[in-house]
Design brief:
Blueprint lengths: L10 H12 L2 H13 L3 H29 L3 H8 L7 H33 L14 H12 L3 H20 L1 H28 L4 H9 L8 H14 L6 H6 L8 H29 L11 H12 L4 H35 L3 H19 L16 H28 L2 H9 L9 H21 L4
Helix pairs in contact: 1-8, 1-12, 1-14, 2-3, 2-10, 2-12, 3-4, 3-10, 3-12, 3-16, 3-17, 3-18, 4-5, 5-7, 5-14, 5-15, 5-16, 6-13, 7-8, 7-14, 7-15, 8-12, 8-14, 9-12, 10-18, 13-14, 14-15, 16-18
The structure holds phenylalanine.
Phenylalanine (PHE) binds next to helix 1, helix 2, helix 5, helix 10 and helix 14.
Length: 455
């Protein structure tokens, strides 16, 4: 069972850790690409609506379950409704899903470490002889760094080891301390980049595209992709928020915490838009696509060649990415670590090793998806794409629906109310709206996301 040693020590620390989980590559990398595909400002508007109307209530529901359960995700379901044990299957799903995500997320974290390293050593720009080197150069570099066997293997292992080190430190001395240092740094870096983006000649055009909605772009596919993005970005349905909330003290106000986390997470996504769109407008890179690996590993390094001190800018940018990635990977591996500790009564140390050794092995294998093991196919995809696609398209939506149905219909109604009001210490006007959203709106909309590929 969790003891006091596994509690966040300070209010700021718990916010930093939770925001650290939410703010990840989803905000920095996936959001601008999705926003561009969804017509810029139109997407942003729908995204903000999804985050506020659905994201906050579902987050509150996850926090409530976690704090009431006071243990790991599976145990939370068992503790809350001991007579309905079948529901702990949702808990199982909420442990297996993040663990599978962690396998390919470690590989991506490894890529960000590679780029940080290559920027620090100057290699990334070693062949650039003039400003505005062409995209071909960086595509070639990307192939060299990502589509070869050695580099991804080495840096994926580094990512796992870093993660293991933090988890061994425990909740307050590992995760909280790391987040307390890195999250402020992340915001400082973002502010610096926003400042630079504002001075670019294309700033006006970029901001207009990102902030002035053209309502004709609001179509059902845009809405579904904004919803998917909102859930991914807020780390919903991954068991993370349930796990972290078990470390929240009894006095923590869950609704306020959820609003703070959601606002900060959204702010990071908006700041990324403010950075990316002026840059691509200025350098005429609109046609180059922002999806997948292109934005961060090709388009942005190319943008930096136009700026004096390209290497320094790229060091700062990849630092930002590494911070975003690491604070997310520790949260995602904490879910299963806590489970092993509480289900099998293992010490923290044993749990961390029992989890991280298989993850080390599997992510090392996954790091070869674009090179030596490219021919190994699951449902027609390499291992990396397969894990990404099953977790995002099937497992996460199913886990989220399960959680909403559980909190809306199965768990005692009083539980949500008690957690939202800290057992009646204050009133919460949001109780009924949260309950209604978790009961009806959220599961139905997520179900639509789930079945949309079949429609
Ligand atoms: N919210 C995270 C993001 O935006 C999602 C995530 C968390 C992914 C933890 C992996 C691990 O990237």
């Amino acid at each position: 069972m969790s003891t006091n040693s596994s509690q966040f020590r300070s209010k700021l620390g718990l916010i930093a850790a939770t925001v650290g989980s939410a703010v990840g590559l989803g905000n920095i990398w996936r959001f601008p690409a999705e926003a561009q595909a969804g017509g810029g400002a139109a997407f942003l508007l729908v995204y903000i609506l999804c985050v506020c109307i659905l994201g906050i209530p579902v987050m509150v529901a996850e926090f409530s379950l976690g704090r009431a359960g006071r243990t790991d995700v599976i145990g939370a379901f068992i503790n809350v409704t001991p007579k309905k044990r079948a529901w702990s299957l949702v808990g199982w799903l909420s442990v297996i899903t993040p663990t599978l995500i962690s396998i390919f997320y470690m590989v991506v974290t490894g890529w960000t470490l590679t780029y940080l390293w290559q920027s620090l050593s100057g290699n990334l720009y070693s062949g650039v002889t003039h400003t505005g080197a062409d995209m071909g150069y960086f595509t070639e570099k990307m192939n060299q760094y990502i589509r070869t066997p050695e580099m991804p293997l080495l840096f994926t292992v580094a990512a796992v080891v870093l993660n293991l080190g933090v988890l061994l430190g425990g909740v307050s001395k590992g995760i909280e301390r790391l987040s307390n240092i890195l999250m402020p740094l992340l915001f400082v870096l973002l502010l610096i980049f926003c400042g630079v983006a504002m001075t670019l000649p294309g700033a006006g055009a970029g901001l207009e595209y990102f902030l002035k909605p053209d309502f004709s772009h609001i179509t059902p596919p845009t809405i579904l992709s904004a919803l998917g993005q909102a859930f991914f970005s807020l780390s919903l349905g991954m068991g993370i928020l349930v796990t972290y909330a078990a470390y929240y003290p009894a006095r923590t106000r869950l609704v306020r915490t959820a609003i703070t986390v959601v606002v900060l997470d959204m702010l990071v996504a908006v700041m990324m838009g403010i950075i990316i769109f002026p840059a691509i407008m200025t350098f005429g890179l609109e046609g180059h696509g922002l999806a997948g690996t292109t934005l961060v590993f090709v388009t942005l390094p190319e943008v930096f060649t136009h700026m004096p001190g390209s290497s320094a800018w790229s060091v700062l940018f990849f630092m930002l990415l590494v911070i975003a990635a690491i604070t997310s990977t520790v949260s995602i591996t904490e879910v299963a670590t806590r489970c092993l500790q509480d289900r099998l009564n293992l010490s923290r140390r044993a749990a961390v090793f029992w989890l991280m050794i298989p993850i080390l092995f599997l992510s090392a294998v996954c790091s070869q998806s674009f090179s030596t093991l490219g021919g190994f196919r699951l449902a027609g995809m390499n291992m990396f794409d397969f894990l990404d696609s099953v977790t995002a398209n099937v497992m996460l939506p199913v886990a989220s629906i399960g959680l909403c149905v559980y909190m809306g219909w199965i768990a005692p109604r009083k539980l949500l109310q008690n957690e939202m009001t800290n057992f009646g210490k204050f009133r919460s006007r949001l109780f009924v709206p949260v309950l209604m959203t978790v009961r009806y709106l959220a599961p139905l909309l997520i179900l639509l996301v789930l079945i949309s590929p079949l429609l």
